[in-house]
Amino acid sequence: MKIAVIGSYAKALVMTTDRIPLAGETLVGREYRGTYGGKGSDMAVQAARLSCDVGYLGVVGNDDFGNEFLSLLHANGVATDGVRQDETLPTGVGFIIKDTAARNVIVVDPGANDMFSPADIDAHLEQFVDASVALAQLEIPLTTALYGLAKAKAAGLTTVLNPAPAIDLRDVDLSGIDVVTPNESEARLCVGLAPDDPTPNSVIAQQLIARGAGAVVMTLGDDGAEVITTDGSEKIAPFRIDVVDSNGAGDSFNASLCVALAEGKSLTDAARFASAVAALCCTKWETVPSYHNRDEVEAFLAGAVA
Questions:
Q1: CB atoms within 10 A of CB 198
Q2: What is the pTM of this model?
Q3: Which of 85, 88, 137, 193 has its CB 3.0 to 4.6 Å from that of 162, i.e. a possible disulfide?
């Protein structure tokens, strides 16, 4: 059981405030800390903690943050052969403001992630050998994400794209992607609508499927998730927990979805498993520190009621 993560890394610089500031407003924060960030990094670590073999492809800077990232992957058993340290740009950085209601705002400078090119994929095609699933997101160049997934699909892998940060995909051929995994606002942005457009989720998803995607798994926040295919849709009930911090839950969901698919679960069963793992991560602060291991997840599932 192996997945390949075509990903991003950014050092996360975090601060807590009582509420999210308004535009132009200055608030006094507290609890400043530096932690691990980047959707690809989060996904790789969460998948590895679910007892999955993980190979990582990506680019970081040749700097302290980049070296720290390699240490993180090594500590979690993620293969780093596909990571290149670039001399041109520094490792990406994300600034995160959290409030006491478990909400957050994030601004990211991609840094060396922008140097991740199709040539890097070609240089590390061995990461697709013996893998079952490839997972990419959009904190890296779109051309690289799509190229990597196309190469993975050609090698026989199931391909998953988490379109975040969301961009307009109306002119993009999605036929190399088996599953697209947006949240509700991302899904609308992907088809050229406002993030709060009232168009039903099923209609939005069918537009992505019309672009070639095999299926859509849409995360619905507190309402769980929905699996949508050409044959119809199925809602995945949420797992009820006391939310401490929702940051990183989407990455946790995507990683665990891919782990479940690599284990041979159906898309609906994989989404249920992913919903449980993502819910569990919301019981702790931050991203990487909140990602639970397989034994913890199985114990949670044994006692949880969706």
A1: 7
A2: 0.91
A3: 137
